[in-house]
Structure formats: C-alpha cells, structure tokens
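Posted in: Protein Modeling Q&A

I'm a second-year student putting together a small comparison for a lab meeting, and my supervisor asked me to include a predicted structure for Putative transporter C3H1.06c. I've never done this before, so apologies if this is the wrong subforum. The sequence is pasted below exactly as I got it from our records. If anyone can share the structure token output, I'd also love a short note on what stands out.
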Amino acid sequence: MESVEPVTRTSSNLLTSAPTLDVESPTEMSTSENLPPRDYKFWLVFLGMGFATMITGLELSAVSTALPVIVDELKGSTTFVWVGSAYTLSATAFIPLSGGLAQIFGRKMVILAALLLTAIGSALCGAATSMNFLIAGRTVQGIGGGAITSITAIIISDLVPLRERGIFNGLIGIAWSVSSGAGPLIGGGLAQGGQWRWLFYLNIPICGVSALLMVLFLRVRTPPGTVSEKIRKVDWVGNALVIASTASCVIALTWSGIQHPWNSVPVLVPLILGLLGLIVFIAYEAKIAKHPLVPFIILTKLTSLSGYVQTFVMPVVMLGIIYYMPVYFQACKDLSPIGAGVDQLAVALVLAPVGIISGVSVNVTHKYRPQLWVSWVFVILGTGLLITLGADTLRGHAIGYLVICAIGLGILVTTTYFPVLAPLPVSQHALALSFFMFLRNFAQVWGVTIGGAVLQNELRKRMPAAFQAQFPEGTAVAYATIPLIPHLKDPLKSEVRAAFADSLKVVWEVMVGIAGLGLISCVGMKGLPLHTDVDKRWALENGKSDTKEGIQMNDS
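Accepted answer (user: helix_wrangler)
Welcome! Here is the predicted structure, written out as tokens:
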C-alpha cells in the first residue's frame, strides 16, 4: 500500500531546495490547531491573490474571441497563433524558475515582480501597432502570468493545511473560472466595439490593487542570506534547460499545420530537440543539480504520478473547448464575437460553483478519489456530445453540452492538487506545486495547438477549393474565414459552415480520446490521508520572533 513519504530529511537529499531544514520537527511544522488566526490580513492577502488569479484567467480565454478582429486590424493572419502561444510559452517556461526563486528570495518579492511584469506586458499589448509588437507584449505578460499562477498556489499551501485546502482552492477557482468564463464575453464585446486594446489595459489597475494588498498585508518570513548567496542557490542550468526545451517544443507546435506541415523539418527538429531537452532536464535534476527545481520523489509515488497525468490532460481538453467553441458559435451559428462570448459564459457559470462544491466535499469527507472519477466521466460525456454538433444544431444543445463539460472540469480544477500532494511531506509541497503549475501551463500549449492543428488540417480538406484559393499559403484559414462568413451567399455560405462543423467534430473526437487518458490514470490513484499541517517556515507572521519559535533555515 502506498504511504505518505517520511518527513525526515538530510543534507544529502537530492529533493531539497534552498533554503532547507535538516529535520522537520514539531517547531517547524504548524498544525491547523496552532496556526495563527485567520484575521482580516489573511483574507485581504487571499483577496489579492484572487485578483491576480483573475488576470491569468482573463488572459487565457478573452483573446480567443477577440482574435479575428485583432488579426484583421494588425494584418497578422500568418502569425495569429503566436498571440496565444507566446503567452503560454513564456508562462510555462518560467514557472519552474519562479518557484525556485520563491524558495530562495521569498514569496512576497516574487509575487510583486510577477504583477509588475504582467502590468508592463499588458501595457505593451494595448499599445501594439503590429502583430510582432503584440506578440512581444504577450511574451512579457506570460512571464508574469506564469509566475502568478505558481506563487499563488505556493502561498495558499503555506497558509492552509491540505485537508482544508479544498475550500480555498475552490474560492480561487471561482476567481479563475469567472474571469476565464467571462473572458470570451469581455473580449468579444470590446472587439465588437473596436476597443480590443482595453482587453489588455484592464489588467493594469487589477495588478495595482493586487500588489497594494500584498505590500500591506503579506507578512511572510523571508529566507536569510545576502543577495549574492541567494543568487548562487538558483539552479541556472536546470532553468536554462527547461526554458530552452519548452520554447523549442512550443515553437514546433506553433508552426505545425500552418506555417509548415507536421512532417516537415522545421517542425520535427525543434519538437524532437525540445522533448530530448526535457529528458536531459529530468536526468540533470535527479542526478546532478544541487538545488533541484522538481521533487523527484514523485517518480516513486504512483498517486502523485496519477495526479500529474490528470493535471496535464485536463488543460488540454479545457483549452480545446475554450478556444474552439467560440469558433463554432461564430462560424456555424453566425454569432458576433460578443454573442459567442455570451454562449460560452455557460462554462464559467457552472465551473465556478461546481469547483466550490467539489472543494467542500473534499474538506468534509477527506476523500478525493470519487470526485476525480466522476469528473472524468462528465468530461468524456460532454466532449462526446460536442461531436454531434452540426451547422444546424440548436444553440441550446451546444450550451447544454458545454454545461456537462464544465461540471467535470470544475471538479478537476480544484481537486487534482490532492493526489499530487497527499503522498509528499509538506516541506516539499512548494516545489511540487511549481511543477504542477508547469505541467498545467505546458498542457495548455498542447491544447491550443492540437485543436488548432486538427481544425486547420480538416478545414483544408473540407473547404471549397475555389474559396480557399483567395488565402495565401500559410494563412490560418479558420480565423481568416470567420469575418467573411456573414457576407457569403448560399450555397457557398452553407458549404463553409458545414466544413467548420465537420472539422470541429474531429477536434472533439481527439479531445474525447485525450480525456480518456485522464480517466485511465485514475486507476493508479490511492486514497491517502490529507495533511493537517503546513510548513511553518513560510507561515504568516503573527508578531512573534522567528528565533523564539525555533525556526531555522539552512542551506545544508
């Protein structure tokens, strides 16, 4: 039977990251009974993290609905996919670094830097005068967004025991779900009104409010040591490997099926190099790195592995739905961007409360396996029903199928943490969460790319040849076509709409298969006890001296 990893640690432990403790003693761990009270400072910090999370959810989903308008204005039909991929690439590649920096420099410095980068990137995006300018801004924005994703999860793990974390994950899930679900509506409304730049400018005041709350109320302990000592503890080689490998994979996936065929050298070479680089990264971290970015104890825990597989699969399916259901509504149902956003809002309205209910159920029952089994059944059922959508299917059917998908995804958003963290000692939760967020973001790249590649290739097969001839080679047919559909006349209009509907059916078939992997991975998942303590090294300060509390941070 799989057990929770013993908490004794030595200086030779390869899984340790600076700063470390030689032994996890009672003075270094806080149980739920002796944690500081959750006063107004705790809740204001939590509110600040909610605002930060809203930004990441909004940036993930809002751009997809506004993209046809942005592409048309900035003349970027050959590079549009980079608007999404640049964000997810930089967010994913820099998540491990942000987690490591949080261990070395402290949580407060990292989250403030993340908010600053997000605000700067948003300003650049709003001021963009070309597609390359916009892509550069999205890259900066993504670095900040990825760090926000990682550090908010780490701070919650510092403040709330795993057994109680379901409710708090659910609350953060509400912020993410509402913003990601409302994103298509906001993006569509602004795009339709010719104000798509405000889709990015809106992030700046939100960043400011979140940063202010963190400056005033986030009083967590900071690791000792000079700046030069802390810089020496950063795993620069490991970070370079994961950043370069991730970038190589994302470049290949972005080019595939649009600029270059899947079996072409410009796609295969960077993809193979990127995957090999990730293998080298894992080997380096496991055998050589002094301060590894990833706690590789997870490789010995089947439950953690199951949780990580589910963590990877869920965003692939979710991003496929978030990005390509608006395409269905606009191409097949003749909806405007704002109309597509309204129909897509069903995801947020269901996903958020379901996430809370799922978190409460874990808190009450102290179990997570039943919820995860049920979640995958709903996801497979919902995406399976999306396959039945045709050009003439009633919109109500499409919205109903989205609701079924959202029930399953809502459970997964707040529950996949538990099998990942339950087998591990709380001292390793921060790095485990950083890797968790890395996988989740990396999967988002695959979700957008797989769906886009399938849609692009299927449209090339099904679209009337005479109609396709107007688009230059390398043009993204889907987004170039959508603005033209309302002005087409039958029978061409019906043929184009049918081509979109039939192509999207293949996208949903692929997503059903991917969701099936998530369900299968549940087989290896055990039901383990949930921790009732937190790592006291990172708890909110409550006015007592750290020395008196017996806390020592050593770089053993």
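A couple of things worth pointing out for your meeting: Residues 40-74 form the longest helix (35 residues). The beta strands are 29-31, 533-535.
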